[in-house]
Amino acid sequence: MAKKQAAPRVILIVGANRGIGYHLAKRLLELGDFVSVLDIETDNLEKLRDPHPDQFISITADAAKDEDIQYGVSETIKQFGKIDIAVHNACLCTFESASNSSDELYRKVMDINFFGALRLSKAVLPAMRKQGFGRIIFTSSGVGVTGFGNISPYASSKGAIEALAKCLEIENQEYGISFHLFHPPLTNTASSSGLPVPKEMMAAPQKVGKGLAEHIGAKKFVICHSFSQAMQMKLCYRHSLFMGKMMWKMAARAAQNNQGSN
Predict the structure, then answer these.
(1) Is the CA virtual torsion 115, 202, 45, 194 positive or negative?
(2) What gap in Å lies between CA 145 and CA 241, rounded to an integer?
């Protein structure tokens, strides 16, 4: 079990009303950190406020709006004095072939997943540069590395933030600021509900969120919730297209078997 932090950190998360983000925020609060959550929906976050009234704030904000993210960053600094870690976890995932996905849909997904990460970075970097430290984390996905069928808007946006994080890491290293990627496994969340994969093959969001919280300060560029997931990601990076094709076939086979058993 991870120990409480000697010095509480201030952590801002964009996208944490449910799923992995919610359990990430919950565990960080348990570890003694101060947490600010920005999300377009905040109803579920009320459960975190009561047990941690002095450590937690939530702000209604749209990851696709510059003014919302800038306001959330400003309010977090006003409330807690600084931001040590900023996490872009908001995402939009669609489940349709490229031929059946409009250009507008690609733009919408990119606006939240990729430009949302860029928006947060631009909003928080001035304060982090001024204070001389900080880390910014984007939640990526294995499909952004390997590819997968009928999910190209989402996978493309995740592939884009992989490159963005590397570029911004290089640009900001002289300021004491590091960039990282969260790489959760396939998890049983609303975002993955349209995948043709049986739920029993998906990880529990509670376990993933908790594990990411306990590794949020890791020095590695790619941060996973468990050792086994880290090993899987190494394999995905080394044999990306092979792994993508294999996982697509496995998912299709599992879906067929699941239909046959019903």
Answers:
(1) positive
(2) 8
Q: What SS3 class is residue 103?
A: helix
Number of other CB atoms surrounding residue 169 within 10 Å? 17
> What 3-state class would DSSP assign to 176?
coil
Taking the C-alpha atoms of residue 85 and residue 73, their distance in angstroms, rounded to an integer, is 11
Q: Within 13 A of 158's CA, how many CA atoms are on the CB side?
A: 25
Q: What is the pLDDT along the chain (262 residues), one digit of tens a residue?
A: 455 556 899 999 999 999 999 999 999 999 999 999 999 999 999 999 889 989 999 999 999 999 999 999 999 999 999 999 999 999 999 989 999 999 999 999 999 999 999 999 999 999 999 999 999 999 999 999 999 999 999 999 999 999 999 999 999 999 999 999 999 998 877 776 666 666 777 889 999 999 999 999 999 999 999 999 999 999 999 999 999 999 888 877 776 666 655 5
Q: Do the bridges between strand 134-139 and strand 34-39 make them parallel or antiparallel, or are there none, so unpaired?
A: unpaired
Tokens standing for residue 60: 């209604």
Report the distance separating Cα 83 and Cα 163, nearest Å. 24
CA–CA dist 209, 203 (Å, integer): 10
Residue 7 sits at φ, ψ, to 5 deg, of -120, 115
118: its two tokens: 């860029």
Measured CA to CA, the distance from residue 158 to residue 98 in angstroms comes to 16
Cα–Cα distance between 251 and 194 in angstroms, integer? 12
